[in-house]
Amino acid sequence: MSNYPSLLIRQARVLLPNGDFITGDVLTQNNKIVQVSSNICADTSVVEIDAQGLTLLPGVIDPQVHFREPGLEYKEDLFTASCACAKGGVTSFLEMPNTKPLTTNQSALDDKLHRASQKSLVNYGFFIGATADNLTELLTVNPTPGIKIFMGSMHGDLLIDEEAILDRIFSQGSRLIAVHAEDQSRIRQRRQQFADIHDPAIHSQIQDSQAALNATQLALKLSQKYHRRLHILHLSTGVEAQLLRQYKPSWVTAEVTPQHLLLNTEAYSTIGTLAQMNPPLRSPQDNQVLWRALRDGVIDFIATDHAPHTLEEKAQIYPNTPSGMPGVETSLPLMLTAAMDGKCTVSQVANWMSKAVAVGYGIPNKGEITPGYDADLVLVDLNNYKPVKREELLSKCGWSPFEGWNLTGWPVQTIVGGQIVYAQGKVNPQIRGQALSFGG
Ligand code: DOR
């Protein structure tokens, strides 16, 4: 039995599963959408939300985030990160295993699931990290969206840069393998070559396009060899996109981040190390090729790779500065602003940020506004523009690479499982999300 009221969202511009919009009402009951219609009569016990002039989209599912708990809570934790999600219209997230301890076995996964049940305002799932010696765990742990392999840009147990070990992991089991595709041996060699340079712009040359391409080619080769479900995380280069355009088996998917679409190497001159991430930002030409690949379906969906670090850490001198930037609070308005600028449609954005992710990871009943689906929804305002302001950010790191960008499509209300988790500029810290299931 639910202990919270039904919601009746009135006269929104509602995105339908076929990509069309109707102006109409959406009724939720318990955690489900129960009716979508031009005009719904409901009894007085429902909570009515006047959504005139607003657009209703399925809640965002962000399939790549680093929320730092346990072990690195000085950067972010599951409560602060999930508050940032609620504000950004992100109703579900898939989190990466490079926490402390690493998420490489069932007990570490159980610990994260327990922590999230206590602290997360939105729905959650956690990847299992591959090491050289946890194959049994990779085959058996549950629930998880898949196996994360760092082929590069990592140190310690999570780095797997030997083809023989990768081959062994690809050869056994059938669950999804998600790769961070960068060639560590090339990065190592180029790091030495450019060791005297402290301008962070060198980061994009050290971890260059060739390093990304080498690793993506290897992952594709192994996936092809075993017909293994492969997902390529944060695709960053035009050459990788061109490779996938020529050759992409049906069991392979790829994602791109808003920053690889919207930022490029020019950003180092304005925001310095805040632009440093892995894989690095590329050229304006790469931006264009990635956009085209996304629009053409070569790239399947969007992830933020939300990877917060403190401003103190980012203020060090390159290469001592950590790579990564936050993203969950700004991803939806960034993409909707791009849609309003004519780069794509609002319905494509909703597909890339919700439906296609649910399909890619087999997350049942999410990503569409239709009866029987989960009531994970976001109401956005596409009529007004507002800048990204540091002082309004909820992520613990307290900065964004997009500060000052004037964006539209900001969430006005976010609903998780039929409960309002964000409204009138405030999160409701009492709401808790649910563990996601996979393979549906
Ligand atoms: O820039 C990055 N930072 N890329 C990653 O893949 C990892 C991340 C982090 O955890 O900081």
Automatic annotation (TrEMBL):
A molecular function GO annotation: metal ion binding
Keywords, ordered alphabetically: Hydrolase, Metal-binding
Keyword Lipid biosynthesis included in the entry's annotation: no
Pfam families given in the database record: Amidohydro_1 (PF01979)
Source taxon at top rank: Bacteria
A Gene Ontology term for the protein's cellular component: cytoplasm
CDD domains for this protein: DHOase_IIb
Domain Amidohydrolase-related: from-to ranges: 55-421
Cofactor(s) listed: Zn(2+)
GO BP, sorted A to Z: purine nucleobase catabolic process
Function: Catalyzes the reversible cyclization of carbamoyl aspartate to dihydroorotate.
Family under the similarity heading: Belongs to the metallo-dependent hydrolases superfamily. DHOase family. Class I DHOase subfamily.
Name of the featured protein: Dihydroorotase
